[in-house]
């Protein structure tokens, strides 16, 4: 626990230090330039972290002693980054290409754009929903954006924010003259779904790296490059360097690769097959071997990708600042709310950034929020549980697609279950200024919340790296509309409400209905389907859907049969029920005196006539005349 906490403090306070620039250094072999990026320190090699990862990531019962994704046809051609220090972009594109080929999502000639990734890493133009338009990752030091390099943790953010484009659309030859737009930034073919920091240091973690290469074709890694450590096509630096200045992809291994092949002899046989980005004039046609003992080889990442298709992303985290996150041994709940800004959208996945793996979570999705300061104030559409598997970005498919209504708010609510043995974390975006790079996070228009003691608190200076991933809903037009009745009979002045059912119920069409009557002098209908009889006759009530489907009900309005009704007041009982048509009012055989009576007309008689009546009471004689259902007599008094 103490060791993990110290690591976190280091990460949160780290600034981007670029104190050892190495660029355009002429190497000892001909026909290539040894372009690297400014050196950075690693976080810290963490043995406990490495051990925990190896338990869950190694699945193959027997990993082969030699393997090459090159021989398997999963690796694209060698590129040359000269004259730029953007090795990280070449390594990331290479890893993505290998993944897409291996998974059958692309042909072997796929060529992704390093220029697009490099340019928009440092020139954010925003997203389609305008939630990240003012977030910036800026180069502020002496290096240009092509030479400043990038921390490997930044790559996962850029590739999950806007994705990867084709080389044809954004060739590397145009990188220094690019004048990008929001449309260009989001004009990508693939987007990263999952990233996983396999280990901080490769040495001692060979099995989990090999498993990831078997799974995905290659992994990205960094090391500290120095010309004195090369011998032919072999690299090993006997010094324990805890920094890096070059990014590459690991595409294979050989457990028997002899230690004698290296100028500085390592302690054991075994080496990684490395794909470089210095052209085919370097090493063995662009590849070289690196000893398993290389101390500086680290920040080993595995990535997964998918076709972007018509996918869009709701997010607030627009910078590539990967240096901030929370860390908690307790159960904590976090939420992002988003305003829906498009029609016909379906939320089908979310993603969350975590700096720890193997964390249980509960995910809830709420729609149509009634209180934007309460992320759970709407309709709970999804409630599912799972495990945060990656130290990195985690893509989570929802148990069902959720239709989003334009101009309403929805929320993504994560509850993470941390323990003393395995602290839960969630990545944050925040403003931070380093030596050569600054991150500017605009939080003025964002709705990010954390729950404390059952009360939601809104963040002010940070945003959670929680994204909502939507697709354009497949149109589901209204096929039919059915009324609960096809004919009704009403008496004049009475009403009945018709019930309409739309099929399918999950249509993407508007469910607004239009009600009309063929004769408003006979029957009227309101916007809710309430039909009222006006006069004797027939009328047709029609309901119409937004796409023109209709259903009808025939209405017959009849005159109400006029009646004379009466009610008796009986001693000891009070007023009895109304009766009519010559039926008896009062009691029989009980010797109960009738004390008063009410008489009234119904129907059209009631509208056209008054009825007057009076009674003769014992000892009182004739009482006053009364009318229209008022009491006549001595109710409550026996005379």
Main features:
six-stranded antiparallel beta sheet; 8 helices; disordered N terminus; about 35% strand; mainly beta; 47 strands; about 650 residues
Describe the structure.
Strands 4, 6, 7, 8, 9, 11, 12, 13 and 14 form a 9-stranded mixed beta sheet that branches. The chain has a 6-stranded antiparallel beta sheet with strand order 20-19-22-17-26-27, with no helix packed on it. The protein has 8 helices and 47 strands. The protein is 12% helix and 37% strand. It is mainly beta. Helix 3 packs across helix 4. The relative contact order is 0.11. A hairpin with a 3-residue loop joins strand 44 and strand 45. The N terminus is likely disordered.
């Amino acid at each position: 626990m103490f060791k993990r906490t110290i690591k976190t403090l280091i990460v949160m306070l780290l600034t981007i230090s670029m104190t050892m620039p190495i660029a355009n250094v002429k190497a000892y072999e001909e026909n290539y330039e040894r372009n690297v990026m400014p050196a950075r320190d690693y976080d810290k090699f963490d043995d406990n972290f490495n051990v925990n990862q190896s338990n869950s990531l190694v699945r193959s019962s027997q990993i082969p002693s030699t393997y090459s994704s090159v021989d398997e046809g999963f690796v694209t051609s060698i590129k040359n980054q000269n004259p730029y220090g953007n090795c990280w972009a070449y390594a990331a594109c290479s890893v993505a290409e290998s993944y897409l080929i291996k998974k059958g999502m692309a042909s072997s000639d796929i060529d992704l754009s390093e220029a697009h990734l490099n340019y928009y890493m440092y020139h954010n133009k925003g997203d389609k929903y305008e939630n990240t338009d003012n977030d910036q990752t800026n180069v502020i030091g002496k290096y240009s954006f092509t030479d400043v390099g990038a921390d490997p943790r930044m790559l996962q953010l850029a590739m999950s924010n806007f994705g990867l484009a084709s080389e044809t659309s954004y060739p590397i030859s145009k990188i220094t003259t690019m004048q990008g737009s929001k449309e260009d930034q989001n004009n990508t073919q693939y987007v990263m779904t999952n990233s996983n920091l396999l280990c901080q240091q490769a040495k001692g973690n060979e099995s989990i790296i090999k498993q990831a290469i078997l799974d995905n074709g290659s992994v990205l890694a960094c090391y500290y490059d120095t010309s004195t450590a090369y011998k032919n096509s072999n690299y090993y630096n006997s010094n324990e360097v805890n920094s890096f200045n070059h990014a590459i992809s690991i595409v294979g291994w050989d457990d028997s690769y002899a230690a004698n092949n290296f100028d500085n002899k390592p302690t054991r046989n075994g080496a990684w097959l490395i794909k470089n980005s210095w052209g085919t004039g370097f090493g063995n046609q662009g590849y070289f071997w690196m000893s398993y003992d290389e101390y500086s080889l680290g920040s080993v990442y595995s990535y997964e990708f998918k076709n972007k298709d018509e996918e869009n992303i709701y997010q607030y985290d627009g910078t590539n600042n990967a240096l901030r996150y929370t860390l908690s041994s307790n159960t904590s709940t976090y939420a992002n709310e988003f305003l829906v800004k498009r029609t016909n959208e379906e939320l089908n996945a979310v993603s969350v950034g975590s700096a720890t793996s193997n964390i249980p979570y509960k995910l809830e999705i709420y729609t149509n929020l009634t209180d934007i300061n309460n992320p759970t104030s709407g309709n709970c559409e999804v409630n599912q549980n799972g495990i945060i598997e990656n130290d990195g970005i985690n893509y989570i498919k929802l148990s069902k697609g959720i239709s989003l209504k334009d101009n309403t708010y929805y929320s993504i609510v994560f509850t993470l279950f941390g323990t003393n043995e395995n602290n839960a974390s969630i990545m944050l975006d925040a403003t931070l200024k380093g030596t050569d790079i600054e991150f500017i996070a605009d939080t003025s228009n964002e709705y990010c919340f954390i729950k404390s003691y059952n009360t939601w608190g809104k963040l002010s200076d940070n945003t959670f790296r929680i994204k909502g991933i939507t697709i354009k809903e497949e149109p589901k037009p209204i096929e039919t509309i059915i009324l609960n009745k096809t004919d009704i009979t009403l008496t004049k002045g009475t009403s009945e409400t018709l019930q309409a059912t739309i099929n399918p119920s999950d249509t993407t069409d508007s469910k607004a209905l239009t009600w009309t009557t063929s004769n408003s002098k006979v029957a009227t209908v309101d916007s809710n389907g309430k039909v009222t009889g006006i006069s004797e006759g027939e009328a047709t009530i029609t309901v119409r859907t937004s796409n023109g489907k209709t259903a009808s009900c025939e209405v017959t309005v009849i005159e109400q049969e006029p009646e004379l009704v009466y009610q008796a007041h009986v001693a000891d009982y009070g007023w009895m029920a109304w009766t009519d048509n010559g039926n008896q009012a009062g009691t029989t055989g009980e010797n109960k005196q009738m004390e008063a009576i009410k008489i009234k007309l119904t129907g059209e008689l009631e509208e056209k006539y008054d009825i007057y009546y009076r009674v003769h009471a014992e000892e009182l004689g004739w009482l006053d005349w009364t009318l229209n259902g008022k009491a006549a007599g001595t109710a409550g008094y026996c005379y």
